[in-house]
Amino acid sequence: MNTMQFFVYGASVLATALGAAVAQEAGGEYVQVAEIEVDPAQLDAYRAAVQKQIDAAIQKEPGVLVLYAVSEKDDSSRVKVFEIYRDRRAYEAHLGSEHFKKYKSTVEKMVKSLKLVQATPIALGAKTK
Q1: Residues 50-70, mean pLDDT to the nearest whole number
Q2: Which one of 3.75.10.10, 3.20.20.30, 3.30.70.100, 3.40.50.960 gives the CATH number of domain 3-21+29-119?
Q3: What pLDDT shows up at residue 19?
Q4: What burial letters (b/e) apply to 3-36, b meaning 16+ CB within 10 Å?
Q5: Distance (Å, rounded) from C-alpha 80 to C-alpha 84?
Q6: How far apart are CA 8 and CA 56, in angstroms?
Q7: What residue ranges do the domains of the chain occupy?
Q8: Is the predicted pLDDT of residue 23 greater than 60, yes or no?
Q9: How far is CA 42 from its chain centroid?
Q10: SS in 3 state form for the chain?
């Protein structure tokens, strides 16, 4: 499964879980993809930090709906984080959370570049088990 397929699958699972009402809600979700380049010598430390941050956000923040971190198959130092929040306010609350601030300070010297790409969901779908 390539990165894009993984993102689409994750978004599809989310859409199924949230139901059509949320997807059609005015103002809807806040979606973005973080494109991150990590110092290759620090990949293991980065992976541990991002996993800890994602676990905390999913557990503690009801407005965080999806956080997936994947690396490119041909260059594991290039990481993409697919993010879906209930709305813009949930995203802003996430940025102010203690676990996110700790993540940012932990990875500050590991991250060589960061680009945030805002996205608009077009179609989300998933199969249930």
Answers
A1: 96
A2: 3.30.70.100
A3: 42
A4: beeebbebbebbbeebeeeeeeeeeebbbebbeb
A5: 13
A6: 23
A7: 3-21+29-119
A8: no
A9: 20
A10: CCHHHHHHHHHHHHHHHHHHHHHHCCCCCEEEEEEEEECHHHHHHHHHHHHHHHHHHHHHCCCEEEEEEEECCCCCCEEEEEEEECCHHHHHHHHHCHHHHHHHHHHCCCEEEEEEEEECCCCCCCCCC
Q: How many residues does the chain have?
A: 129
Tokens of 3: 């990165």
> Residue with structure tokens 């103002």?
27
Token digits of residue 113: 């570049």
Q: How many CB atoms lie within 10 A of CB 114?
A: 14
